[in-house]
Amino acid sequence: MSDLLKSGRLRGSATFLLPALLLCALPFYLDAFWLRIGLFSMAAAIGAVGLSLLSGTAGQLSLGHAFFLAVGAYGYVWLAGEPGPGLPPAVAAVLAVLLAGAAGGLFSPVAGRVKGVYLGVATLALVFLGHHVLLTADSVTGGFNGRSVPPLELGGFTFAETDPELTVLGVPFGAEERLWYLGLALFALTWFTARGVLRGRPGRALAALRDSETAASVMGVPVARYRSSAFVVSSMYAGLAGVLLALSFRRVVPDYFSLLLSVDYLAMIVIGGLGSVAGATVGAVFVTALPLLMTRYADQLPLVATPGSGDGSIGPTEASRYLYGAAIVVILLYAPDGLHGLARRTRARLRRRPPVTGPPGTGPSSGAPSAETDTAGDTATTARAKEHTP
Amino acid sequence: MTGFLDALLNGLALGSVYALIALGFVTIFKASGVLSFTHGSLLLLGGYLVAVLHDDLGFAGALALAVVVTAAVAAALDRLVLQRVGGTDPHAAHVQTIVTIGIDIVLVTDLARRIGGDLLPLGDPWGNSVTDLGPVTVADSRIAAILVSAVAIGGAFALFRYTPWGLSLRAAAEDREAAALMGVRLTRVRTVAWCLAGGLAALAAVFLVAFPAPGLERTTGQIALKAFPAAILGGMASPVGALVGSMLIGLTEAFVAGYQSDLHVLGEGFGDVAPYAVMVLVLLVRPAGLFAAKGAARV
């Protein structure tokens, strides 16, 4: 058996299949609270992967992610709902993703030419202008109070509490369970497409662009075109995340899509490790689940007050913001390639430990091997924008 | 006509406050290549200190202390955190920019928690008094904003132009490596730059929340972000550009707000977001800003 597992291909598919099976089994064991955390995490992960492509791989800082999430979410609600064209929800979902991509495309004259951290400032405009539009375009967005989200329907199957009633293996399948599988499917789609993009020609071109714009363009990378397509692709992922978020929240309101949300997404990819799909996922789960868990267990945590217990006390939302704000600083100080890079280096170090020589535990402490693995594995992940001299 | 003059004066007052903030951005950028996203929280910190201290120290004393403390906090952040990130990496400035976002999250969360849902008065001497200037009535706070900003900005420009530190700053902005080889102590230059920027931000806070604004609230820091368009319009590395950009942004905001009834297509409160619309329009035409020098890339 272990021989079988050692043959690379089987082990490769096993590392994917096991977590996938585990994730598929979870709805049978967890209650709605945990499923909702998972659902929000999956939506956030989809968005974070998109941002990671743009910021981590292409080195373009974007603070406009909340805007594209909003375009996806509101696009779906408007296209599928009343008032609006009232399209079949599945069609509306696809169109909403395309709409987010188109919004990214419209911004590409700026996104293609403004580089690095400056794009971060330019995209601030999207968040503020977008928020203004969400508040004022009442007929489409429902204004300050937002709109309720029509449930997704796929070939007569509705992703809601009923219609049809469904019980699988004695577990009643409500909205959370159904959306969980939808989220899993969409996340799997994101995972594989993003890895494909990163490992193929576009990923290499974008990384070259990040490391040196001049060198990349001399090597034949069309700079502006790759920059703006990275922006479009990233906004399409954001749109998809927006649709899933809208379905899970069942109501969209403008104030959710504020600058804070954009900063949350940035926190996700920095904490997870820039430029890697797995890192973005880990970061997304961390940043999404932390405030929800803290709210739930506020009464058992030291230093954290239950929500609404007066001014000046540290509520769970604040506590989690302290934590991940500090996490950004600490991670960039001590492990610039994020949790993902940290995990990879630890793994590489363990693997390099000589199996028999010496007593156990002395292997990895010498400095040289770790330095070697650092440089060997450090091609695509670090938190770098391009351009060497300003 | 009075409407026009009103908007013009409001715009100038607003623009001069933005200029204080934008000048800070630009100074930091020149010294270190970092875009400081902490500016919103530094501004909030300055305003909060004035709000808390003015009962005991009087307004002037509170303001002076707030400026000093904010400057010291800014310098400490640079020395103790930012300068330790990235090391000799050529992209260090970009990584440090992201670190400033992390610092901002922590500081803003903490200050917002302390401020809560309240509106804190700053106890400024001009209160809600107004002065008649010919046909228009102007709030005294606006006049004070213009005068004090003019003095502060003049002082900052004098620093850039006539002091050894200003010379070092300009040298560092020109070519960091060459400046270091010529004996410019880059760490000291950038720490002083952060000091200056922090002080200016605290000063700006006082005028940003003065009458007719209701007072210091937890979202005040977000207003500082409007100085970003101002600095970007100016091309980020040019103090004069930042000044012009700030005036442009301030005037746009005031005129859009003043003529809101004629612009109702754009929706209520468009004045607040107009600076960003201007920024996008300018970036479409000149991606490097209005005053940026054209540079050739070296490989």
Automatic annotation (TrEMBL), chain B:
The chain crosses the membrane at residues 12-29, 34-51, 57-77, 143-162, 191-211, 223-249, 273-293. Its main location: membrane. It is found in: Cell membrane. GO terms for molecular function: transmembrane transporter activity. InterPro entries: ABC_transp_permease (IPR001851), BCAA_transport_permease (IPR052157). One of its GO terms (biological process) is amino acid transport. GO terms for cellular component: plasma membrane. The keyword Transmembrane applies. Keywords: Amino-acid transport, Cell membrane, Membrane, Transmembrane, Transmembrane helix, Transport. Pfam families: BPD_transp_2 (PF02653). It comes from the Bacteria. It is a multi-pass membrane protein. Belongs to the binding-protein-dependent transport system permease family. LivHM subfamily. PANTHER family: ABC TRANSPORTER PERMEASE PROTEIN, BRANCHED-CHAIN AMINO ACID TRANSPORT SYSTEM PERMEASE PROTEIN LIVH. This is Branched-chain amino acid ABC transporter permease. It comes from Streptomyces rochei.
